[in-house]
Specification:
Order of helices and strands: HHHHHHHHHHH
Helix content: over 70%
Shape: elongated
Low-confidence stretches: none
Radius of gyration: 25 Å
Number of strands: 0
Number of helices: 11
Strand content: under 5%
Mean pLDDT: 83
């Protein structure tokens, strides 16, 4: 997790002003103030990044720009879009398996919080309104790979569409989770490197 990098960061914050304190360039109060500021401001920024977007979304403020920003973030944006597609397909499969009509199941499964994703999936369901097949609607979902479409067509031909879509979504979601776990493993290591570089720069600057 991020607990150990956070502890390393706090240690770095406390160590950086130590040379100046040891030389008598700053009083103890200034040292404590720098340490407190080095911890407080990152925590404030982190809290804002976690809470403010959810608050703005719940109040309908800047929803469009926030949704666009969410999808444009490198690495995270494409991964999030793919995950939302897979969650939608799995919910769709469960609803179809429960006997919900295709058009109704499509609407109920479209539960994405991101309005751009929700709107795109809603538009893709237009063939169902005309009595089209589920595979035709799925073909209109942005970024859905050929494997998913082939699975849908095979499921329709065999009369087991819900089972085919569920198996595909479960397998693809498992791959997505492994990718997320890989990022969770490497992110702390990257933070260690950045903290080591930052601490070294702070110590060299303080020693001048």
């Amino acid at each position: 997790g991020l607990l150990l990098p956070a502890c390393v960061y706090m240690t770095a914050v406390m160590m950086a002003p130590l040379p100046a304190l040891a030389r008598g360039d700053i009083p103890v109060f200034d040292y404590l103030l720098r340490c407190a500021g080095g911890v407080f401001w990152p925590l404030l920024i982190f809290a804002c990044l976690r809470k403010v977007p959810a608050w703005l979304r719940s109040h309908g403020v800047l929803t469009g720009p926030l949704d666009e920003l969410q999808l444009s973030v490198p690495i995270f944006g494409p991964w999030y879009w793919q995950r939302e597609r897979l969650v939608f397909i799995r919910l769709l499969a469960l609803l179809l398996g429960a006997g919900v009509p295709a058009q109704r199941a499509w609407c109920l499964a479209n539960s994405a919080q991101n309005q751009r994703i929700r709107g795109q999936i809603e538009d893709a369901g237009a063939p169902l309104l005309r009595g089209g097949r589920m595979s035709e609607a799925l073909a209109g979902v942005d970024g859905l790979d050929a494997t998913a479409l082939a699975v849908a067509q095979t499921g329709e031909a065999s009369g087991r569409l819900d089972e085919a879509l569920r198996q595909y979504a479960d397998a693809a979601l498992a791959v997505s989770r492994r990718h997320a776990q890989g990022w969770a493993t490497w992110l702390p290591r990257l933070l260690y490197v950045l903290l080591a570089v930052w601490l070294g720069w702070q110590l060299v600057a303080a020693a001048r």
